Every structure is written in structure tokens, then in C-alpha cells.
Amino acid sequence: MFLITCPFCGEREQSEFKAGGEAHIIRPKQPTELSDDEWAEYLFMRKNIKGVQLERWNHANGCRKWFNAVRDTNNDEIKAIYKMGEKPPSI
Amino acid sequence: MLKNLRVKTSKFIDETTNVSFKFNGKTYYGFKGDTLASALLSNDVHLVGRSFKYHRPRGIMTAGSEEPNAIVQTNDNSAFTEPNVRATEIEIYDGLEASSQNCWPNVDFDIGGINNFLSPLLPAGFYYKTFMWPASFWEKYEYVIRHSAGLGKSPTEPDPDIYDHRYIHCDVLVIGAGITGIMAAKTAAKNNLKTLLLDEKTELGGSTIYQNSDFIKINDQSTSTWLENEITELEKLDNLEIKTRTSVAAYHGYNYLLARENLTDHLSKDDAKNKVRQRLLKIRAKKVIVATGSLERPMVFNNNDRPGIMLSSAIKKYADYYGVATGQKNIFFTNNDTAYESAISLSNKGIKVEAIVDIRENSNSEFTKEAENLGIKIYKNHTVVDTHGYKKLNKISIMELSKDGQSFTNSNKTILDCDCLGMAGGWTPAVHLFTQSGGKLKFRDQDQVFIPNKYPSDQISIGSCNGDFELDEIIKNTSKSLREFLNINQTDFDNLDTKCPKDKIVRNIWLLPSDEVIGKTKPFVDYQNDATANDIKLALREGFRSIEHVKRYTTTGMGTDQGKLGNMHALGIIADTTGIKVGELGTTTFRPPYTPLTFGTMVGRNVGEYFDAFRRTPMNDWHIENKAEFENVGQWKRAWYYPKNDETMHDAVQRESKAARDGAGILDASTLGKIDIQGTDASEFLNRVYTNAWSKLAIGKCRYGLMLNEDGMVYDDGVTTRLDENHYIMTTTTGGAANVLSKLEDYLQTEWPELDVYLSSVTDHYATASVCGPNSKKILNKIIPDLDLSDENFPHMSFKNAKIDNIKCRVMRISFTGEHTYEINVQANFGKSLWEMCMEAGEEFKITPYGTETMHLLRAEKGFIIVGQDTDGTMTPIDLQMDWIVSKKKYDFIGKRSLYRSDTMKEDRKQLVGLITDNPSEVLEEGAQIVANTNATPVEMLGHVTSSYYSPNLNKSIALAVVRGGKNMMGQKLIIAMENKNINVTIVDPVFFDKENVRLNA
């Protein structure tokens, strides 16, 4: 059970949050113009890195805000937190 | 006759307070401060249990939580009973009852003991080898195996004790209050750090607190005297919380630890009454100092498990701490100096030590010289080859070891009489918690121990759990570690004058040789699971290589003690046999909990009605008063049906369903999710999240919407009403409300932040009564006479603001039953009044309250789907034959693109259809499989029944089902294959009742 620092509420226990998978996957603006393969790439393909990963998290049992986190999946260390729309910090 | 083996007054035992307890039905006495083990030993009771597989007699082996043998059932035949409790940890109290496990009829005469003689037939893995054929017999074998499996007996009644949870945050957590733990806690607390010190024992001080050797001193004081003073000073410190009888169970990432605090297990049942028994501490520590000490290793030789064979350090503790002689003719068997230390301590108390059998060729420390001075016979370079005595040790045989330690110099065997044998096989650092936290170990070849290497979080290990075994290095290294870890310049322990014996030699032989042929010997490695060195070697011969596989095949280390004593020997024996170094083999994974936890501790207060949170509607009391049965929907308690007199569920649902269509029905619909949507882009937002178009919905109108996932599958549905230009209220399914809100927030915040839309959950803010049936209009007219209910003013799928007296309400004319229906929403606290008002107004029209079951039946008659019942996350709107709700004009909505994937466009996907049975009174089972041809092999499964009811309004059985390609199979005959019959059905349109929607608009 790790600790996550919500950028709006501060440090809280993991149980207050919901993981939202890989970050920076942008929904295509014109889905109907994509081929099946291109759409499948957006819809299904996700990385599952052993190491440092950029992830989406939601403070579901708190302020309900979504934000991004840089997490090392080896040891769950959260190296950085940044808001939606911001560029990932270089780590 | 009972002997009293109490030898000397001990300051840790209150000899003025006699405690009476029962063991196996017989009454014994001990003193306050005794454990069950020390009290039994003082009464000369060694035999306390039987082993798991061979039912061999077993005694007390240790004096701590690592005990593998002396595990007992406490308070048998009462609700307080607990199995597998270590006798070495139970503090006795008046009225304690304990009994042996795994034996029948009793521990002295155990029928299962025959397994010991059958043991050549029961090698490692014999279950897998023996019970393989004939395959059809497995069920019979299983019955027998299940009955012989397990150790103690589970309680049969609910646990009457109270348990609790507590969160603790601290700067420094110190685990273990031995000498280094005390040093750490004092240093941390004196440096203004909020410190928590935990120890599983009753007293602080670990093994040092009863260490009075003349050869080991600090500042010229005995170590116990020095440590007592330190503890006295420690207890005065402000920043420190000390908890004894508290065992750390788990060490997770982020320095999050779980510990069990034992509060009343040492008290009599009267004293413990109404008090919290155990508390689970959830600890978040900024820094953790692990000072868990080390565990003494046994020796692995033939028949090393008889009652009377113990760890040398345990014998010393029973003598020095409890004042109990564990034997009158003691022999020690050792590979290092520890046994000498114990032997000297015993001799000084007047307890007879006959001999020390030492596998080393020489040792010249002060301890060995002192033992010789005391006249103890020392057999150097000798090993024990066998032990004798079935229920109690009475003799051992020893032989002289060869140079390589694998055989003997000659065939001479010496027999020595003894009643207690103390094994000293060296020490294993207790690194369990360190590795649980993710720490990596390294192997130190010189003394064959795994010690911490890489710390995964802000923590250190100090003392013997870090591989420091001698007092001088313990003090030196601990104070240095503390200075660095706490970033301070000095500690109280930087300049202590320590004295301890030097030149300690260790000779390590993991498996000692025997003069018997292998196969006739029983050198136990894991006592609790009866795994021997021979089992491990067999596993290796059969091709097992990984330590994790050998562990599971032989069950070594898989008992309730998790192999605290024997795991190192298992590794050593594998290393010796395969030629791979121990350090390269690695260890098995140490998993929480370190010692067993009770279920009570884990669940704390979350039992009974507090097990899970639940939600009740404002009308709940009325439902209870009117004898409703309830069902759980999400967290909600929803009225399921309202049985009258002795009605069965079927009868009640049939009555309610008929009444709702014939006269009037009323449903508590308060649980439906309600999301308030506001903002200038609200319409555009709805366009994007629902499959149909919303821009043109007029103010005051309602529309049904279907929400998809991005993969095109139906996610949720419900009616949304336009309250104003930029204001909507969306309803969702009861169970899906939270997820829908979360999904909508996700899109708003991450994909479409440019949209001006605000979402609020208002589910709990409103209570909703849904009044349906031919008389619903008349009833509503009585309640809200001012409201014009004409079809022109208030048609189906529209909304009106209204007032009942002075209470504002929102009335929607929408229907899930196919009947003319009004849903009346009021502020939640008026919900019950509204309901009662409807019941009163409806009385003359025989208004009938109906529950969720009737609601399901009525909507099935109309062919309306329930998301989650008729869909399962693999159904598109097209599959549901709901093409009409998918906008062709809209450029995009969530899931649109997926509806044109090659897979979602396949013609033979499972599609929603109606089913009617050939026999109209036969009701199908939901989930039943649908096939076309029962003669094919294998039979192709075409689909399954999703909803099925007996319709009282149609007087026949109806069902909804999903069938592969079902859309094009209207009128086709299919078969529902049941266990013992086939039911013939015909595919029909899923709308069974009032296809023309006459009743809706009536």
C-alpha cells in the first residue's frame, strides 16, 4: 500500500486512488478516418514496462481529479507527479 | 509421579502467584509469568503433540515464536478455541485449557502413529505418485486425505472476542527490543524523533536480559545489569512508545508495516471480558530499524526430533529466565561455542550436564576451557548418530567423525544416557522482515549465513539479524550504524568497554552422517511437516532443481512456522548434493505474516453488519414495516418483493406483476444513479457520450440513452432529462452510477478539457417513487391536483416541475414497465412522506408496492434490457437489436469507431432474442446453454438464457437470450440442454407484451 501525493489534496494512501493505465495516449480526433489497425493501436495497445512508467491516476475517493504519475514498477516508487496536460518531467 | 523441575527463583517469574491450568484434561500448576511450555516443562511434561505426517511424538523444542512442534489447541470445544498456537508463546492464566493436536485418541496413544512404521511408503510427493490411478478413485482418496490433512480444529462458532485496528505514524520504528533494539530506541528518542519500539515478548531485553556470564561484560557489569539500567532510562523518555507482546507480521513497501498487539491473551477469561483481545497496528514509519535478532539452528541427524531434544539456547532460557530445568541429565550437541555457554549456565545453577558432543576438532575459547574446568565431559570430533526413547529421550549414540565430516574414523559407538539433548547448530539471522520489504540478501561464506545486503527503503538492520553475533562487534557496529542512519554525531554507546570471548570456531555440516543405511534414517529438516533430508535428496534425484520447487514437493518450510528452523539446512543439503553454492541457490521467499495472525485481527471491527458499508433509501423503514425482502444491488439494500401472509417469492412476484398492469403499482426507484450535468457545453457533452443525438432535445423532455465503452460494448443506460438550456439530469443504472461518473469525469478532464461542463452526483439527494399502471394518472391527480396531466401538456417522455403542498418535486413521465408511469422525485428527506402519500392516494385503486424482481419481470415482458444481466461487456447496441438508438449522423461518440471493426460487424455475433418454450409453463434457468443439435460432438454452444420469468400477464413462460446469429433465426427451434432433459424453445421477437406501446400512451 503506497502513498501518492495528489497534486490537489496532498499525500494520501493508495486506497483512495484508482489507477488509469498508461498516460499520454491521446484519443484520436477523427476516429472514423482511422483504419482498423490504427484504431486497434489506440484502443488496445498498452505498454507494461518493468521500470519507470508514466501512468494516469484518479483521486477517486477524494477530489475526483485525474493526474499523471511517474512510477517505477520495480518497487512502486513514485518519482514524480504532474497535472493533466503537463509534459512529463525528465527522469 | 509428577516431578517439580523448578530450580531457582527467577526474577521474571512471580513464584508467589500459583496459576492452575489444564493440559489434555489434566490440571497442572505453574507460576505467573510462565509460558505454557515452561510450565509443562517444570512439571516434566515434554510430550505435547504428534507430528503431521508420521504422528511421531514431539516435545517442546524452542522458547519462542519459531516453535515447530509444541503447537496446541487452546480452549477446545468453546467459541474461544484457537488452533496451532505455540505453547512457547502462550502465557498461562487461571483457567487456561490447552490440548494436543493431530492425535487420536490421545497424545500418549495415537492410532496415526502407525504412519511412522509405514514411512518407507510415504516419501516426498507420495500423494502425487500414489493417488493417480485409477483416476476415477480420486474422489474417494480425496475424502480420506482431506480428513487427515490440517493440524488443529477450526472453531465452529463465531469468534466472541473483540478486535481492533489502529494507525500509527512515527519517525522511527524499532522492531525488536533486545540489546540493539534498546540502543536504537534510546538513541532515536533522545534525538527528538517520535519512536515506536515493538517486541513480541512480554519483557524488554531479548536474550541479554538474562545473560549473566562472567565472560561477557559491559563496563565491568554483567550485560543483564547494564541493560536493565538502560531500560529504566529508556522508559523515562518522552518521544517513545513501547509495545510488548506485539509481533510485526508484515513489512511492505513505503515502510508500511502491520503488527499484531496481543492485549488480553495472558489474562483469564474474566479479566479479559469486554476488552479488545488483539489490535492490528498499521504503521507508517519514516525510518525503520530492524533488530529482530537471530534464531538458533538445530542439527540434522538421525531421529533428531524426540521429545527432550531441544535448542541449546532454549534450554538456557528455560533455566535462566523461567528457572526450569528441562532435564536432569543434559547433554549438548554442538558445532560452535553456544552450547558451552548454555552448559556453563546450567552447571552454575546446579543442573547436571553430562557431556558436550562437539563436531569440531578443537576449540580454545574461554567457554570451552570453563566447561572443562567444571568437569563436563567433552567429546570432540564426535557426532550423534542416533537417539533412543519413543515418547521421551533416554539415550543417544555417538561416533567419531572422519576428517571430511561425511563418515566415521572407526565403527565404535558410544551410548550415553540422557533425558535432554541441546542442539547448537549455529545461528540464522532473522531476515524475514527485511526480505519481505524487498531487501536483497548476500551469503557470508565464513559462517554460512544470509545477511542483508541492499535496503529497498529507509531502513537498517542491526545486531545479530545483520550478522553481528559477538558483543563487541554488536555494540561497535550498532552505534556506528545508528550514527549514520539517524545522521547524528554521537550515541551513548560509542565508548563502551565490552568484554567477550574470542577465537570462536564454527564447523558447519548441514547433514550429519549416520551408520545406518539411508532410507532407514529420519534426519528431520522440517519438523512440523515431517520433511527429512532424505526427502530433499529424493526430490533432487527426481529432477527438482529450483529451491522453490523442492520446497513445494517436499513441503519443507510450508508449515505454520514457515520453516524458521530448518530452511537453512534444506538449502545446505541441496547445495551439498548438487554442488551449487548456497549463495547462488538463493532462499525461498519469506512471506507475511511472520507468525500466524487470527482472522479476527485481520478484520478488526468489520464483522457482522459492519462487514461492508450499505446504503438505504429514505423509504427503507416503510419497506421493513411492510415485510419486504431485500436484495443487494451494489451497496444498496433494495426491496426485492413484498410477500403477503405465507406467500412464496414466486407467488408474491406474480401477484405484484399482475397488479401493476391491472390497477397500479409503486416502486422505490431512489437508488438509480443521478448525475446533475450543467454548463454551456452540456448538450455537446451528451452527444459525445451517448450513441444518440441530444442537441435537439427540447427543454422539459426526456430521452433514453445508451452509453458505450470505447470498444463499442454497452456500458450503461438510462433516461436523461433536459431541465433547462444548459442543465440536464442523467439517470444511470443503480450499480453503475459511480463508474459512470468516474468515466465521464475522465473524458471531461483528460480528453475534452475545453468543454464547459460540470458533473455532480446527486443520487442521494433525491428520493424517487415510480407510480405505474392504468390508474397512475388518477393517483397523481389526487396528489398534485394543479398539474395538468393531459397527454397534450404532459406526454410520455416529458418532465414537469411541480409542488406537493410546499415541497418542490420533479415529475417525469417515463416508463420501464411499459405502463403509463410517473416518476416523482423529491428532496430525499421527504421520500417517506411522498411514498405514504402515494399509498394513501392509491388505496382506492388497489395500488400495490412492488420490488426489483417484479420490475425485472415487467421490463422483460416489454423486452427492455438490463445492462449487466442481458449484457456482459461483449454486446454492442447492434447485437442488442437496438440499431435505432445509434446515430448515423453524428460524427463521433464514445465507441462509435469500434462499431465498424471487422469483429463487431460479424453477422454471427451473439444477438439478443426472445425465447418461448414449447411447454408454456416451463420456466428456463437463467444462464442455461442453448444448442441446435445435441447429436454433434462436440455440441456447439450457440448462446445462453439471460433473463427468464413466468409472465402472469401473458400466462406463459418468457425468456431473453443471446444466440449466435439469432437476429436471422426468428421462428427457429432450438434446444436448452439441461442436466437431465432437453427443453424445446422457439426464437421470437424480444418484445412479448404490447408491441404497439398502447399502454404507455393510454
Q: How does this structure look, described?
A:
The complex is a heterodimer of chains A (91) and B (1002). With 91 residues, chain A is mainly β. Chain A is built from one helix and six strands; from the N terminus they run E-E-E-H-E-E-E. A four-stranded antiparallel β-sheet of chain A has the order 3-4-5-6, with no helix packed on it. In chain A, strands 1-2 form a two-stranded antiparallel ribbon. The longest helix of chain A has 9 residues. With 1002 residues, chain B is an alpha+beta fold. Chain B has five domains: 155 residues, 2Fe-2S iron-sulphur cluster binding domain, sarcosine oxidase, alpha subunit, N-terminal domain (Ubiquitin-like (UB roll), Roll); 204 residues, FAD/NAD(P)-binding domain, CATH 3.50.50; 114 residues, FAD/NAD(P)-binding domain, CATH 3.50.50; 93 residues, Arc Repressor Mutant, subunit A (Orthogonal Bundle); 192 residues, Probable tRNA modification gtpase trme, domain 1 (Gyrase A, domain 2, 2-Layer Sandwich). Chain B is 21% helix and 28% strand. Chain B has 24 helices and 50 strands. In chain B, a hairpin with a 4-residue loop joins strand 26 and strand 27. In chain B, helix 22 crosses helix 23. The longest helix of chain B has 15 residues. The interface between A and B is medium-sized, with 25 and 24 residues.
